[in-house]
Amino acid sequence: SRSDITYFGAGPALLPTAVLEEAAAALLNYNATGLGIAEHSHRSEIATTIINEAKADLVSYLDIPDDYEICFMQGGGSAQFSAMAYNFVGNWVTRKYKEVQGSESDESTVLKLKSAVENLKIDYIITGGWSQKAAAEAERLFGSEHVNIVADSRKANDGKFGTIPSEDTWNLSHDAAMVYYCDNETVHGVEFPGFPKCLEPGPDRPIVVADMSSNILSRRIPISNFSAIFFGAQKNLGSTGITVVIIQKQFLPQPSAALMRKLALPIPPRIFEFETIIKNNSLYNTLSVLDVFIAGRVLKQLLLQHPDKVQGQQILSQKKAQLIYKTLEAYPTIYQIIPDKAARSRMNICFRIKGGSAVEELFLKDAATVGLTGLKGHRELKGIRASNYNSISLEGAEKLANFISTFASQNG
Ligand code: PMP
């Protein structure tokens, strides 16, 4: 049964049973309305209340300042690879247009803007498969001449991911439309230990965008250092189907489609335009209110569990990750942790077992017999990956650590 299993899958991830029970009841009959939550109109007061409450709880849990907007979108984290590039380039053009102080119907204004566009850069820090995909999407949409790879961790690491390049090697552009990075690389098990020093707000404040799909809600974030943050719900927040964008209001304005065409720059489909989605409180089109409901219940539970909000969860996440890493480190002749110690993810713990895939198969099989599942590594990287998201309890992490010890003793 469900209570016998601790599921360490990388996403979709385990959801709290109490939340699923509530969602199951709501799916049949929401608040005694005789209609389920997935049947009620997204234009109903019920939907708006669910959306607004989830937003307010997210603001409270993460301490999001007033000058930020939150919206729920669809298309997963992958849609945001395109949406972030489109919107931040659009906003960059809006700013350049303001600086030029002309009219877009005026030839000389357009010429000035065209020459500015020659220097347009979108900066990417590549530390794993997900930031790599985001950068590749920007190259596809805007051309590689507009994409600057600030750093690529494979360069000084034998072509492999697993480190975060030292900031003194980073090659940041001047006036980039955004500097993009992935705070936690789910596949490669690499997490930024904290906010990069060289991106901290200063006189030429960099515009920083981060993918936090796999570590959101697990540690404190200095929100005001970011211009935007996004994350799919399906790891730490809720069920698959919604993606959350937190964006500073000043970066919303977009230029006209006509101006973008004159500058030969692509314009986003409306559905990817943050300004439009936010103006409509995430209801520009039919949103999956069920998924927002589930996310809202997870947030309520986290707020109840941790009176000190995300700080409380940060301590717990750290404790669980340390327990698992320490146990792996205790058997260096058996286990090999893949990423560099300084860049190890608290969320996705990636390791290999000496003896290769046959021993790893045995590890997975034995783990499953004691109810520890979802540990199989990524299909390309192989090995073992234990995803230690918020829904893994301390007891669940202890159970895994004990199993890691026992397996090592029996197979060493
Ligand atoms: N970013 C990260 C860090 C991810 O882990 C994932 C998915 N696992 C994505 C983006 C892509 O998300 P989706 O599958 O929802 O498009």
Task: Please render the helix and strand layout as text.
Elements: E1 6-7, H1 17-28, H2 45-62, E2 68-73, H3 76-100, H4 107-117, E3 122-126, H5 129-142, E4 147-152, E5 179-182, E6 184-185, E7 190-191, E8 208-211, E9 228-232, E10 243-248, H6 257-262, H7 274-279, H8 289-305, H9 310-329, E11 335-337, E12 348-353, H10 357-369, E13 372-373, E14 384-387, H11 394-411
Parallel strand pairs: 1-13, 3-4, 3-5, 5-8, 8-9
Antiparallel strand pairs: 2-10, 6-7, 9-10, 11-12, 12-14
Helix pairs in contact: 1-8, 2-8, 3-4, 3-5, 9-11
The structure holds 4'-deoxy-4'-aminopyridoxal-5'-phosphate.
4'-deoxy-4'-aminopyridoxal-5'-phosphate is lined by residues 11, 76-78, 130, 182, 186, 211, 213-214, 232.
Report on the structure:
The protein is α/β, with parallel strands linked by helices and 412 residues long. It folds into two domains: 2-16 and 308-411, Aspartate Aminotransferase, domain 1 (Alpha-Beta Complex), CATH 3.90.1150; 45-300, 3-Layer(aba) Sandwich (Aspartate Aminotransferase, domain 2), CATH 3.40.640. Helices cover 39% and strands 14% of the residues. The protein contains eleven helices and 14 strands. The strands form four sheets. The chain has a seven-stranded mixed β-sheet with strand order 2-10-9-8-5-3-4. A three-stranded antiparallel β-sheet has the order 11-12-14. A hairpin with a 4-residue loop joins strand 6 (184-185) and strand 7. Helix 1 packs antiparallel against helix 8 (289-305) and helix 2 runs parallel beside helix 8 (289-305). The longest helix has 25 residues, at 76-100. The radius of gyration is 23 Å and the shape is globular. 46% of the residues are buried. 4'-deoxy-4'-aminopyridoxal-5'-phosphate is lined by residues 11, 76-78, 130, 182, 186, 211, 213-214, 232. The site of 4'-deoxy-4'-aminopyridoxal-5'-phosphate has 11 residues, from helix 3. It catalyses: O-phospho-L-serine + 2-oxoglutarate = 3-phosphooxypyruvate + L-glutamate; 4-(phosphooxy)-L-threonine + 2-oxoglutarate = (R)-3-hydroxy-2-oxo-4-phosphooxybutanoate + L-glutamate. One of its GO terms (cellular component) is cytoplasm. One of its GO terms (molecular function) is pyridoxal phosphate binding. One of its GO terms (biological process) is L-serine biosynthetic process.
